[in-house]
Queue: 2 jobs
Job 1
Amino acid sequence: MLELRQITKVFNEGTVDEKVALKSINLTLAPGDFVTIIGSNGAGKSTMMNVISGKLLPDTGSVWINGQEVTQLSEHKRARYIGRVFQDPLAGTAPNMTIEENLALAYNRTKRRTLKFGVTKQRREFFREALKTLQLGLENRLTAKVGLLSGGERQALSLLMATFTKPDLLLLDEHTAALDPARAELITQLTKDMVEKLQLTTLMVTHNMEQALRLGNRLIMMDQGQIIFEASGKEKQSLTVEKLLQEFQRIRSSHFASDRAMLV
Amino acid sequence: MFTAIFSSVEAGFIYAIMALGVYLSFRILDFPDLTVDGSFVTGAAVASVLIINGTNPFIASAVALLAGFIAGCVTGLLHTKGKINPLLSGILMMIALYSINLRIMGRSNVPLLQQETVVTVLTEAWQKAGIDEAINRVISLQSFVPRTWAVLFCMALTVFIIKLLLDQLLKTEIGLALRATGDNKQMISSFSANTDLLTIFGLGLSNALVAFSGALVAQYGGFSDVGMGIGMIIIGLASVIIGEALFGARSVARATLAVIGGAIVYRIILALALRVQFLETSDVKLITALIVMLSLIVPNVLSSQKEKRRKKRRAQERERGEHVAGAQTDYKSV
Ligand SMILES: Nc1ncnc2c1ncn2[C@@H]1O[C@H](COP(=O)(O)OP(=O)(O)OP(=O)(O)O)[C@@H](O)[C@H]1O
Ligand SMILES: [Mg+2]
């Protein structure tokens, strides 16, 4: 489904600010995989997501979706395969357009846009049904401007917009981080339901370890531009937050040890 | 007086087409496009030169529209592909068009007197049909009989057709993507829309309307002049801002209607201002600037005053409430 081969990304190369954000990342996702990604600030998680979505081009390596190489494909062309929800609830919707217009925009992700009306009677019904699954009553506010919705409502709408056209790949970058605990829990639950119902191949970045353990069938941990730990299936199920933290400390210290060994 | 207002409304409708173009770039695309000052003249120049060379005035106006479209697309290309900032792309294009317009016209002024223009053709057809007499008989204004109703009616019709087409376009899949490009670029490109292409197309469309308006203004006024576009962007903005302030902008259809209204109101204010003794025709640009300043400042002042009054009332109410509460406690203690 998704394959990253030897991806490297360096920011500000050749200057004092040089930063290696990704170091030869390899990652393969099978159809239906739901991978949660954890890692400290600056580990390169967002950079990896941006390389996949086409917002950033990698320095070396290649990105493959559905067996096709998409490394050089522009962001909007790649969007035909990818649904995305951003961390900022303001980022995923058009505030001055109505709920139904936003859904119409999302509905056209996989199609060529034409001079036909974006919101038709038939589509409106479809949108209404889709909105009902959120259970927020948004189905009764189709013509309300999205800018009037709360952050949680907007994020739920963003999630729906990213998923209801069944993307080949769903990218979620800390999409619950800006919400209060109750809203975050709601969006987490919605995410789980939608991914399961539509069998979406998903990559989800989160800082909430408990969430990372509860969701998905695979987990990866990133640090300093590398994938340093990976667990899937039974092994992932048996993990706990304590074990993860221990694992992280162990790997970190062994890194330090080898670094020190090199220095000596 | 009436004559002045009547011709203001006529001109208002013609300039409203330009204002709709400005609305498209400023409001829909959120792109402050200064190409307008140039493309307005380009429209006038292209139409005039074609007309004095014997082209049918309707075809000449259509070609002017196309010329404006191309000019707008170039601005869009400068911004999206050349990565030049929006304001600068527009200014560069405006400057470039100044020379291009002179090239098109061959001199700085092309008179259209004695030429067959859209205005003359419509007026004649209208008079032959005897509609003017019929209208004048029905309305029978003693003090004021306009030269012809033809321009007013035909221009109003043209503007409303353009408005309706624009409203419909902005509801199509492409139109929605266009609006989203101005509203949240990051979001719409994550839904596989090519924002570069949409920006180029939107600016093309915007300047097509501007140039078309320029072509009509030239035929209405009977000349095209290389300087006739100076400050046009401000006139367009004035129309948009006045219109939105007076008539609201809740939906696209409402906003486009408001812009037309704004264009007419602007013309009327200008005509009335020019009747003031000490103001002269050469003060037009100054008056325009003042109108825009006022239309930007007044709504702000009004709403902040409203806010202040609301707060004051709240404070008074609270005070009174405490008084009452205090009185009650007094009563109890007695
Ligand atoms: N556009 C950029 N220019 C320069 N450096 C960048 C840029 N984007 C990211 N970086 C750097 O690359 C590193 C990885 O950043 P990234 O955003 O991928 O981290 P992250 O794992 O998403 O962190 P967080 O958990 O804070 O979101 C950081 O050190 C960051 O400063
Ligand atoms: Mg991040």
Note: The CA atoms of residues 14 and 20 of chain A lie 11 Å apart.
Job 2
Amino acid sequence: MEQVVATIFNVLILSSMYILVALGFAFLFNMLGILNLAHGAVYMVGGYIGFALINSAGVNPWVAILIATLIMAGFGVVLERFCFRPFTGDFNRIVMVGVGINVVLQTAVNALLGTRMQALPSFFDGYLRFGVVSVSYQRITIFLIGAALLVLVSWFVRRTKHGQQMQAISQDIEGAALSGINVHRVSALACAIGSGMAALAGCLMGSYLMLSPYMGDLMLIKALVLVILAGIGSIGGIFVTGLILGGLDAVAPVIFDGAVADAIPYIVVVVVLLLRPRGFFGREA
Amino acid sequence: MALLETRGVTVHYGKSLAVEDVSLRVEEGDVVSIIGANGAGKSTLLRALMGLKPVTDGEIFFGDEKIDGMRTNEIVKRGLILVPEGRRLFPYLSVLTNLRLGASLVEDKDEIEKTLKDVYRLFPRLKERRNQKAGTLSGGEQQMVAIGRGLMGKPKLLCMDEPSLGLAPIVVEAVGEAIKDINGKGVTVLLVEQNVHLALEVASSCYALQVGRVVMSGDMDTMRSSDVVKKAYLGG
Amino acid sequence: MNALSRFAADKTRSAGYGILVVAVILLGVIPLLMESLYSLHILVMVFFYVIAALSLRAIVISGQFPLGHAAFMGVGAYASGMAAKWLHLPPELTIPGAAVFTMIIGVMVAVSFSRLRALYYAMGSLFLGVAIIQILNAGGTWTGGYSGFSGITPMFGNSKVSWYYAALGLMILSAAALYRFEFSRIGTNMKAISQSHLVAESVGINEAKYRILAVAIGSFFVGLAGAGYAHYMGTIATSSYNFMATMWLFMYVLVGGVNNFFGPIVGSFILILIPEYFRSLKTYSPFISAGILFLFVYLMPGGFAGLIQAAVARVKSWRRERARDVAAD
Ligand SMILES: Nc1ncnc2c1ncn2[C@@H]1O[C@H](COP(=O)(O)OP(=O)(O)OP(=O)(O)O)[C@@H](O)[C@H]1O
Ligand SMILES: [Mg+2]
């Protein structure tokens, strides 16, 4: 029982974190076809900024997370403006820039803080108990924040003017420009929101698991899995694929030995892609 | 002063020439049409007006402002709006959202609601279909959304690229009526058409484009009696 | 005029051959001039990575982007390393065997992926690459798990100089083979297909066949590079073949210039040797690699080859102008 509840929480937490990061990636990918290979590094740096603020500057954890999110959102604007916008449509150069930024961020964190694994302190002590079952408040909080943010983001994308403009750009970029939408500004906004969400996920994951300068590489791949399996253009599908991948990642270690458990999700992903060559909810004809 | 004026506009795709030295004027309140065969460069010219395609030479003036080199959203803001070839709707968004997005640059909420009412009056069908996804509409309905979306941006000059393409004669008729109606409300119209009958019916003057160049221009009577137009478009 | 321009083209081509011959001779005499075994070691590494980068190019020119290509280098490395270590087979046998094995795996994957469109193929390859790495990680004592294994049968009595010439020879042979392939009828058709599907349809070329062929050739050579590299190093670990490793192979191709056969060669030299030169910076040295990438992205969009082409074009137009001036006089 204890194990079951713990696993359910692992599924929920991993899924919501994967979805947070993947959504940010999907925004730029769907709107402008940009493969942002720096997205994983943004997630990682977000976690480290939170860590540094709490551990070295003694900032309140909540404030630290907020600051980390805002800083990386700002970084997202810079990224869009100077690294992606000049090369719109030039796939090769966008990939090169992404790798470059990735290397710079990883190296910077490495040089400043070392490769030692670190963890953000937990924000809440104690356990919530239901009879024999207990769950740490920390985990509950992480999940609640993640879930709340996902609700907020879906509301933003579906209901607000800027969110609808983002959708318009991904459905027909020229039609969007002709409607008077400032494609560059909305892209910058999307990149800011996406980077902020990634940074926040980095902080939350940093307190749930561990921080490492290379944790972004793996997260980037997971984001890609979510986006591709959902099908290009589908935002809602990412929630489904996020739950699937989070489920695989959380359940596999319960059944299989460590390294085998790591392999299983990717084997499943490859098989799914072969069966559904356009993902689950792909819009592309 | 003309509302829109191009001076010697030339546009290339890579090295191939699509529009060559086109100068035209659109006076405020007019309906001006551009006719020409497939590949004559009509759409390219409109794309250049909207800043979607840079001009290689020449100048474009809207009112007293030079607009070539401006970004598309800035041009739209000035009241030059294009209903593009192929409609370019947002297929997975509702008709209503498509229309509202057309008003992206309009700040005044009441104004937007008022224009929306006007659009619904012009195309009552859209009101019925307002919650349907635009991609699931019929071709004619999609064209209505495209025109409606253009109107939502409060155009001074509305350019339309072959609005009659692929529509049944009766729907073409309706589009023609809509154009007259729009013009009646004080919006200047620049109409690109292959359907010369439609162009002749609604326009007051006309330019004929052939392989990128203006080969003829004048008011509708001159065009109607012109041998070139007769031979090329009216079947004798 | 026609004869003149052909003469000019011949001249640039022979200049190209000249540079090539000089480069090969230079590489040939380096061990005689250099005492530092460490430098030789780095160059051996570069040679193997040149083969890997060229093999990537063979697939890229067919319009496919195998984002898991480095994992196939790992397949070659592990296949040869394991066969030599556990089955006690001679490396002379396991290295070509591993290359063929990698090719077979590559073809199987290409056939199953042939239904996927370019972007999904790229992603499928990426996820498959991760799966391969994770399977190797899960291989227990056979593969040594996450930390890999060492004690792979050495060759040439571990003499650096012998290895140097062997790797150089292997690189030149591979490059020659891939060059022949790229400029053969098949290679030319393949490039045409990658430019436009319409071409393929109008010429009636079976696209899938060409794409699979490209993957077969690319997999063979990357397997070869991986296997050779494994025996040279004597030790392997999966971290050398992960997604980022693939990205670096791509960077070698792009920095060298994607539109030129020699791009991957030059790119590998630039991106391995220059950061190596700054290795005293220790933790900071990756900044150099990133710096090179930014330099090329912002200032030399066509890669190194683009730079050379621009220079050649400028010299040519200058010459043409001069010829015209002379004629006018
Ligand atoms: N993206 C492009 N790349 C290259 N050439 C193009 C492109 N778009 C149009 N052209 C060429 O430019 C010329 C003019 O095309 P354009 O679309 O402006 O013609 P049009 O008059 O609108 O024709 P239609 O009536 O068929 O719509 C054509 O020869 C066309 O092939
Ligand atoms: Mg057209």
Note: Chain A touches chain B through 20 residues (CB under 8 Å).
